[in-house]
Amino acid sequence: MNSTRATVIALAILCAPAFVAGKPGSGTVSGKVTFTGTAPKLKPLDLSKEPVCAKMRVSNPLYSEAIVAGPDNTLGNVVVYISAGDTETVPPPATPVSYDQEGCHYTTHVLAFRVGQEVKISNSDPISHNIHPLAKTNREWNKIQLPGVPPFSYSFDREEIIPVKCNIHPWMQGYFAVLRTSHFAVTGEDGRFSLPNLPPGHYTITAWHETLGTRSKEITITAGQSQSLDFSFNAKL
């Protein structure tokens, strides 16, 4: 998709967790997320209040990532995760996930990671940013990042989907999906997800989208079974 065209909808970045090796007899749930209605025709974001950003994005304008749509009304930036039934106690990965500010936007719009896992936050731009996670059940904080300073790391203690903004540049918006479960995915523009290495059991699987809300479905996995599970957001956009 050519991002220089006015009709482009920005690509989502598929965030996949680091899974431990599957136990014998584990199963997989995979599927696709779609929506009803017509995706909005996007206009380039107004960066005029920050001349450095405006100049930087002349040939590659920024668009809102609130609705990332693909062919056949597939939907990106949807967090799909086990919200109930996961009894595994897998510790959070020791390797941090990365969240970068580059080109006057968050390079990952929706970043999913584990409770207790560090997120390493970088500023790759030649200007300052202020990262501000608007947490409610976790501690809310904000921190300015000057250009050229080393990344810093932070972890969250509770499950929560947290809006993130830059206090300096209001068009910069994203989300941290902080999850207890180790079984999750974030859809790309093709709307597809896969949750592998599921032990046999009964699960509630939830799909979350920043503007269209949540959908949940229950599913039972038997030993070694693979199942398909699709979600549709029945909302007029």
Summary keywords:
237 residues; mainly beta; Immunoglobulin-like; five-stranded mixed β-sheet; four-stranded mixed β-sheet; 17 strands; 3% helix; disordered N terminus
What does this structure look like?
The chain is mostly beta strands. The protein has a single domain (27-233), classed as Cupredoxins -  blue copper proteins (Immunoglobulin-like, Sandwich), CATH 2.60.40.420. It has one helix and 17 strands. The chain has a five-stranded mixed beta sheet, with no helix packed on it. Strands 1, 13, 16 and 17 form a four-stranded mixed beta sheet that branches. Strand 14 and strand 15 (213-221) form a beta hairpin. The two termini are 21 Å apart. The relative contact order is 0.29. Mean pLDDT is 89; it is low at 1-22.
